[in-house]
Design a protein that fits this description.
5-stranded antiparallel beta sheet, 5-stranded parallel beta sheet, globular, alpha+beta, 13 helices
Length: 430
């Protein structure tokens, strides 16, 4: 069987690795892929992951039995719609359903109609009106670009001056381009964040193991927001009862509202949650596998994803058999380029140790490329996602950080405290 993977980051490398691990005879074709994926299959350069015409042409030439879309951008421009029109089986939501991520305004309106718990928010395009809305909210205020901003379009403002600056940056200075032409001014939710992914055929929900992302650049959750500097799983506060509650009060109503809106969602729905004193509330939805949580989750997953991907791509039910997980811990440490997240530098030569990592550590390529002389160089803000799997979280964190330390290039930086909240809970336990 041939599988086409759209994308070229660590998430796509992890998906390819998982599929090949469970199905060694699988033929992987990636567009555009990366040097890590190239070790598992063929990488085909295309005009970009949002060049739908080029992707359809590639599918016509390759005739894959399945296409899996990694990033949100191709989903936003309708790659699933185009593939379905050509009768190519594809895993992912339509463009209309992908608005659950690509339009925070659409998502917020849908949640309100469906009774899904989330923060109060107002949409604005006028800076003065947005500032008045921010002034009505007590305490910190969250300013969100309504469109896709590569995971960086959210600013938590501690006071009105910071909120005004964020509003001006988005609406006047267009720091996020068209993604910030409309914003949400949202109340700040207090609690601990949690990521829960669910595979869905549009009706049934198969939740994955909860994970926790680390968005801030610096240790101790300091510094600016990023696309994610690391993740870990499992999360002890995400009990089976909590996951069941999230499925019933968040996933099912959201999927029902999408069906009633005429845009049934199929693929992977990702709920970014805040565990507040009133219970779990939605921070945001993503319409695809999250990054870097995917790199932490897939090495723990025992269930073969291929049959589930195929069922969803063919419009068939996924059933209700729960996913199987290894009873271990995983920590993913992101190794970032100099200047990330504001202005990441590209082209720095990368030196990898030999062997790259021990057997329980997986090094997923996030932003790498081959130079003309064949050397490996940086090609993105997040360069590697290094996942260690171990019997304890502390050991997984230590081995992930040690492997990240062994990767060398000018200006590289990473956090050594991934999983710090969980480790603090362990330290307080009797």
């Amino acid at each position: 069987m041939k599988v086409l993977i759209v994308g070229g980051g660590a998430r796509e490398h992890a998906i390819a690795w998982k599929l090949v691990r469970d199905n060694p005879s699988l033929e992987i074709v990636a567009a555009p892929g990366n040097p890590g994926i190239a070790e598992l299959g063929r990488c085909v350069p295309v005009g970009g992951s949002t060049d739908v015409a080029a992707l359809v042409a590639l599918a016509r030439a390759e005739r894959p039995q399945l296409t899996v879309v990694g990033p949100e951008a191709p989903l936003d421009v309708g790659v699933v719609d185009a593939f379905r029109a050509e009768r190519f089986p594809i895993f992912g939501p339509t463009r209309a359903a992908a608005r659950i991520e690509s339009s925070k305004t659409f998502a917020k309106s849908l949640m309100v109609r469906a009774g899904v718990p989330t923060a109060r928010a107002e949409r604005h395009t006028d800076p003065a009106m947005a500032k008045r809305a921010a002034a009505k909210l007590e305490g910190p205020v969250v300013i969100k670009a309504a469109g896709l901003a590569a995971g960086k379009g959210v600013i938590v403002a501690d006071g009105l001056d910071d909120a005004s600056a964020a509003i001006d940056a988005m609406l006047r200075d267009a720091v996020f381009g068209a993604a910030g032409a409309e914003i949400l001014v949202e109340e700040f939710m207090r609690g601990e964040e949690l990521s829960i992914f669910a595979l869905t055929d549009g009706t049934s929900v198969l939740p994955m193991l909860p994970a926790q992302d680390h968005k801030r650049l610096l240790e101790g959750d300091q510094g600016p927001n990023t696309g994610g500097m690391g993740a870990y799983a499992p999360v002890s506060i995400a009990t089976p009862a909590l996951v069941s509650d999230v499925v019933e009060r968040i996933f099912h109503p959201t999927l029902r509202a999408l069906r009633e809106s005429g845009c049934a969602f199929t693929g992977l729905l990702y709920a970014g949650l805040m565990l507040t004193a009133e219970g779990p509330k939605v921070v945001e939805f993503n319409c695809r596998f999250g990054d870097p949580e995917t790199e932490a989750l897939l090495p723990l997953l025992d269930t073969d994803l291929l049959p589930l991907f195929l069922a969803i791509a063919h419009g068939e039910p996924v059933g209700d058999a729960p996913l199987r997980w290894r009873g271990l811990h995983a920590v993913t440490t992101v190794v970032a380029a100099a200047g990330y997240p504001e202005s990441p530098r590209k082209g720095d030569r990368i030196d990898l140790p030999s062997p790259v990592a021990p057997a329980n550590v997986h090094v997923f390529h996030a932003g790498t490329a081959r130079a003309a002389d064949g050397s490996l160089v940086t090609a993105g803000g997040r360069v590697f996602a290094v996942t260690a799997v171990a019997e304890s979280l502390d050991r997984a964190r230590a081995e992930s950080a040690a492997a990240a330390e062994g990767i060398r290039f000018d200006g590289r930086h990473f956090r050594r405290d991934i999983g710090w909240r969980e480790l603090a809970r362990d330290a307080r336990a009797p």
